[in-house]
C-alpha cells in the first residue's frame, strides 16, 4: 500500500472510531493458540501471508484474541489467541462478541425497509414520526435521510463518562436512549441539517425511537423478525435491557484502567442501543453483509441509499456504510468498537471480497486504524 493510500484510509477509518483485574503481563504469558484455514486457490485471493502474520503470536501486549473471516474470490479463516487470560484456554472461533457500531447497519436497514413499504418518507422531517421530539430551537428539523447519513446537526447526548476510568466505574449503570436523546436535543442544533457530515451515535439512537414509533414494536424484535431470522443469523441479538453479560460462548474482553489490565466483558451497553448494542458472531455478520449487498435485506432503490454519499464536503458515509479505498479498490463497510472488542465488516460492492473480523484488544477504542491495518487491510491489499 502506498503512503497516499495509507493516509487516506487512516483518515477515513479513524473517523468511524470514536471484572477483576489481571496483570498486564498476562497478555504475553497466556498460552497462544492459532489456527487458519487455507485460502481457496485464486489469483485474486487475499494476502494470506499478511493475514497469517497478523494473528501470529497472539496474545500479545494489546490483543488477546482475533477471529478473521475473509470471503469472495478466495476465502480464509483465522482464529488465534486465548479465550481467557487467566486460564489460557484457546480462543473460540464461533465466539459471540460486542459488535459496537456495526449495529448501525442493522438500524439503517430497518429504516430503509420501512421506506420501501411506504411507511417512512426519507425526505420527511423526523418530527413527522416523533412529534414533540425537538424544541423550538430547531427551526428546521432534520429529515430521516439526514439522520441516516449523519448530516442531522444534532449534538451528542449524555454519557456515563468521558474517560475509560469513568466509564468503567459506571459500567453497570443504566442510561436510557430516551434520556440520551432528551439531553441531546436540549442543546439545540450544532449546525443546519445537511450542512456537513459528523459521525455520531445520536442520529441512530433517534432512528431506533423512530422504528419503534412507526412499527409499534420493540426495536430488538423488529431487528430479529425482519433481519436476523430471514438471513439465518441464529446467534445474533441484543441484551435484554441492562443485562451486562454476553450469553453463550465468548472470548473475554480486556481494557486498560488506571494502568492495569482489567476484564471488561460484563458491561451494560444499553445506552448505545440502536447505535451500538449488538452481539453477534463473525459467521452471522458475514451472512448479514452478503445478504445486504445482494439486495436480500433492503430492496432497490432504497438499498442505493447505503452506497450514496451526501453532497457535503468531505463526506465518507452513506446510510451507515462508509466508503474507503484500498489500493484502488472501493470498499464499503463499518467499524464497531466497545471496551475490549473491535469489529469490522467490509466488502467490495460486487462481493468479490468480503471481510468480517472481531478482535479482543485493549486499544479497541483508542487506536482503531492500527487494528484495521493489521487485521483488515490484508484482505483487500492484492
List the helices and strands and how they pair.
Elements: H1 3-15, E1 21-22, H2 26-29, E2 34-37, H3 48-55, E3 63-72, E4 76-81, E5 97-100, H4 103-116, H5 144-148, H6 164-169, H7 177-185, H8 202-215, H9 219-228, E6 254-257, E7 260-263, H10 273-276, E8 278-280, H11 282-293, E9 322-326, E10 329-338, E11 341-348, E12 353-361, H12 368-376
Structure characteristics:
382 residues; alpha+beta; seven-stranded antiparallel beta sheet; three-stranded antiparallel beta sheet; 12 helices; 12 strands; 28% helix; disordered N terminus
Give the CA-based shape: globular
Number of strands: 12
List the helices and strands in order.
Answer: HEHEHEEEHHHHHHEEHEHEEEEH
Overall radius of gyration: 20 Å
The pLDDT mean sits at: 90
Largest sheet: 7 strands, antiparallel
Structural class, by secondary structure, is: alpha+beta
N- to C-terminal distance: 9 Å
| Strand neighbour order, sheet with most strands | 2-4-3-12-11-10-9
Individual helix count? 12
Strand percentage: 15-25%
Q: Level of helix content?
A: 25-40%
Low-confidence stretches: 1-33, 38-42
Can you put this structure into words, describing what you see?
- This protein has 382 residues and is α+β, with helices and mostly antiparallel strands.
- It is 28% helix and 18% strand.
- It is built from twelve helices and twelve strands.
- It has helices at residues 3-15, 26-29, 48-55, 103-116, 144-148, 164-169, 177-185, 202-215, 219-228, 273-276, 282-293, 368-376; strands spanning 21-22, 34-37, 63-72, 76-81, 97-100, 254-257, 260-263, 278-280, 322-326, 329-338, 341-348, 353-361.
- The chain has a seven-stranded antiparallel beta sheet with strand order 2-4-3-12-11-10-9, sandwiched between helices.
- Helix 4 (103-116) packs across helix 9 (219-228).
- The longest helix has 14 residues, at 103-116.
- The protein is globular.
- The relative contact order is 0.20.
Amino acid at each position: 500500500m502506498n503512503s497516499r493510500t495509507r493516509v487516506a484510509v487512516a483518515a477515513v477509518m479513524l473517523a468511524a472510531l470514536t471484572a477483576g483485574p489481571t496483570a498486564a503481563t498476562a497478555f504475553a504469558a497466556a498460552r497462544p493458540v492459532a489456527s487458519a484455514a487455507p485460502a481457496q486457490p485464486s489469483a485474486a485471493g487475499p494476502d494470506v501471508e499478511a493475514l497469517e502474520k497478523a494473528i501470529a503470536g497472539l496474545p500479545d501486549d494489546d490483543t488477546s484474541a482475533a477471529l478473521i473471516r475473509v470471503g469472495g474470490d478466495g476465502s480464509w479463516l483465522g482464529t488465534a489467541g486465548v479465550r481467557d487470560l487467566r486460564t489460557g484456554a484457546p480462543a473460540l472461533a464461533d465466539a459471540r462478541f460486542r459488535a459496537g457500531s456495526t449495529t448501525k447497519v442493522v438500524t439503517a436497514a430497518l429504516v430503509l425497509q420501512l421506506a420501501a413499504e411506504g411507511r417512512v418518507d426519507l425526505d420527511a422531517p423526523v418530527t413527522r414520526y416523533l412529534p414533540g421530539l425537538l424544541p423550538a430551537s430547531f427551526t428546521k428539523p432534520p429529515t430521516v435521510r439526514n439522520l441516516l447519513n449523519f448530516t442531522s446537526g444534532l449534538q451528542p447526548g449524555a454519557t456515563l463518562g468521558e474517560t475509560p476510568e469513568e466509564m468503567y466505574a459506571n459500567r453497570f449503570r443504566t442510561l436510557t436512549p430516551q434520556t440520551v436523546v432528551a439531553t441531546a436535543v436540549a442543546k439545540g442544533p450544532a449546525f443546519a441539517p445537511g450542512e456537513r457530515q459528523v459521525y455520531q451515535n445520536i442520529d441512530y439512537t433517534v432512528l431506533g425511537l423512530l422504528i419503534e414509533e412507526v412499527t409499534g414494536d420493540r426495536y430488538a424484535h423488529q431487528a430479529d423478525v425482519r433481519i436476523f431470522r430471514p438471513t439465518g443469523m441464529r446467534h445474533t441479538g441484543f441484551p435484554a435491557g441492562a443485562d451486562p453479560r454476553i450469553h453463550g460462548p465468548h472470548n473475554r474482553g480486556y481494557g486498560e484502567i488506571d494502568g492495569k489490565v482489567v476484564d471488561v466483558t460484563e458491561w451494560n451497553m444499553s445506552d448505545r442501543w440502536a447505535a451500538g448494542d449488538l452481539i453477534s458472531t463473525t459467521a452471522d455478520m458475514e451472512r448479514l453483509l452478503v445478504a445486504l449487498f445482494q439486495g436480500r435485506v433492503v430492496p432497490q432503490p432504497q438499498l442505493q441509499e447505503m452506497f450514496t454519499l451526501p453532497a457535503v464536503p468531505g463526506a465518507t458515509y452513506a446510510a451507515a456504510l462508509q466508503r474507503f479505498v484500498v489500493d484502488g479498490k472501493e470498499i464499503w463497510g463499518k467499524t464497531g468498537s466497545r471496551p475490549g472488542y473491535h469489529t469490522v465488516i467490509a466488502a467490495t460492492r460486487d462481493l468479490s471480497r468480503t471481510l468480517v473480523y472481531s478482535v479482543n484488544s485493549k486499544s479497541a477504542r483508542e487506536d482503531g486504524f492500527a487494528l484495521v491495518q493489521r487485521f483488515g487491510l490484508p484482505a483487500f491489499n492484492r
